[in-house]
Amino acid sequence: xxxAIDLNKTKxxxxxxxxxxxxxxxxxxxxxxxxxxxxxxxxxxxxxxxxVAAAFFAAGYAPKEILQIIKETKLLKLLRPSIGSxxxxxxxxxxxxxxxxxxxxxxxxxNIHVTVSSVNLGDGKLxxxxxxxxxxxxxxxxxxxxxxxxxxxxxxxxxxxxILNNFPVEPLVGNCDVIIGSSxxxxxxxxxxxxxxxxxxxxxxIAISSSLNTRKILCDIVIEPxxxxxxxxFDTDAADEIYNIGYEETLKTIQENEILKGIVQAxxxxxxx
Length: 273
Known about the structure:
- The chain has nine helices and eight strands.
- The protein is α/β, with parallel strands linked by helices.
- It has one domain (13-264): Cytosolic phospholipase A2 catalytic domain.
- Strands 1, 2, 3, 4, 5, 6, 7 and 8 form an eight-stranded mixed β-sheet that branches.
- Helix 1 runs antiparallel to helix 3, helix 1 (25-36) crosses helix 8 and helix 8 crosses helix 9.
- The radius of gyration is 18 Å and the shape is globular.
């Protein structure tokens, strides 16, 4: 984080998008509010749901359009596992959707520099994809271990990047003048857990939160809607609600955060920046 940002010289704005299952739809609301206020991004990094949002946006789709695509294609429901299944599910069944909407399937042909994080299951190391087949990198980043079969890329097994880093800010450090982080995993206090699915979701959020704060400090601005705490990572019918929460939280942040307010004002005065 750089406390002495000269907004008049700011040229590169990076956006880090966390994972979070269906809660990741909030990123679309965040991105729509920021773009509505004239902000453009030079770099976007994301994992899991954040990787999906990053790729579609960098391919030229407006956040509102991405939300509509997700709803019409039932992408979220295709990514929702069937608890109790006899075996691991293949996430490759969703590959055709990326082929349809991003036919060039290339990092290099995106309009914005995108980094997708995943974990190499073989050596246990975090990997940042910036080249190669875009759809396979995204699917690897969304591949929840224990539920989906690992994605094989160049002979290596890959799974959800959120295991080691659910808020991939690091690829933006040194490459951007300002870093905006969008996190959809605020951990609320609960008094009871009523289902196995809720238990799994709660355990995942606790694990994610343990390393989140160390990465927040790398951001100049963090947008983290607290109202998302009541939604599970598989609440596929709540997409519109989650989108609106992200949008409204961003409008609030623009009004209250001096750095972001200044960036918006600078971009409105100099739209070519």
